[in-house]
């Protein structure tokens, strides 16, 4: 656009709440994060596993960037479950990896889990000044959207992406939330419109849609196709994980 | 994505050329720009006016960021046409603004024009290390796509956006180019897939599609609706502007 044409919707433009999408954490500096409730999205697999774990009674989940940080919790002697993977396998000496199948009631109820997720932690860290930070995935889509609609705040859907790159799965989920909010008086920015239109294109079979992407083959090689399918289930859960200090806990209704 | 799952297509992945989309200049540092032919895209209105001006025989177009830089060319005493706008009106003392209607044969044939475009210049500057930089708009869509297909290089479609923000019109055009390349053996990244799917959603009436965007009202206020319509015409021109030093000139076949 020419320099003199402002295309951006400022927060609470036109007297309405904004529902905006940040397509990768690299674009977060363009937003006044403190004006928003932020939803962090990392569909494969961090935020899906977090939603499932909190639903299944995990007391808290602590996201960290690196396997070494995760290991440090063991050395502290605290009674945490430690989750860390490399190349799709659980790192030796850790309790489990990032597969949502590890976050069952039997394993996580009443426990605190330290979860290694580089992209998710990066997005959380950059969003720290938000009014509130919650966690979204297809698993808690409708519960999350309904709650967002009850808040009188601007919403920023932050796609964790991969190493700051745009990715389709996180964007599609952002579009799914926009789809539930768009008729509730929210003002959408261009990225929210785009995300929603992509969701419309893919929603009839999200798994098939995402197979078009460049990393379909790679995911296959990692043997996490079952995880992928699991993460694309809509409304399996209702818990909304919220950040309190360093911990993600269940939002109280 | 989890830290251990690489979703990004590296250049020339799978032995094929990459057709990748950089959704805003803020994401350019994520690409090895020197591995690509870059197409700079700033549909409303810089790159549309540049395509039209070069088609109509302008000897060269020099893009600059600021009105003051543009004015400096006058002080140099050079016989350039100076184009600068503020708030949709030609700045006093300048020859014309950014409307493509100013770039007719009668006005520009044989001339060098200094064009003020903040976002376009920003994108050009950040792309400087590319193998080649060309200019795209709906006006030269097919000529540009055909030429790109004859080059044995990775293609990076750089959306100039607005102050580093994502915008729909530049992304839709990137998707239109991907549409012409996608069956020619190019490997697409997630952003290219997304841009193409958005183009599929909007292509039946791009003008109507873009009216959904947040800035439809703003463009109306600026009174540049006729410019917008003009910029959305497909294949009105065949010239491909290419950057040589500081100047955009016609690419020789």
Automatic annotation (TrEMBL), chains A, B:
The signal peptide here is none
Superkingdom of origin organism: Bacteria
Record keyword Magnesium present = yes
Enumerate the cofactors the protein uses.
Mg(2+)
Q: What is its EC number?
A: 3.1.3.71
Reaction(s) this enzyme catalyzes, per UniProt: (2R)-O-phospho-3-sulfolactate + H2O = (2R)-3-sulfolactate + phosphate
Keywords attached to this entry: Hydrolase, Magnesium
Transferase among the record's keywords?
no
Supply one GO molecular-function term. Answer: sulfopyruvate decarboxylase activity
Extract the HAMAP family matched here: ComB
Q: Which family does the record assign?
A: Belongs to the ComB family.
Q: What is this protein called?
A: Probable 2-phosphosulfolactate phosphatase
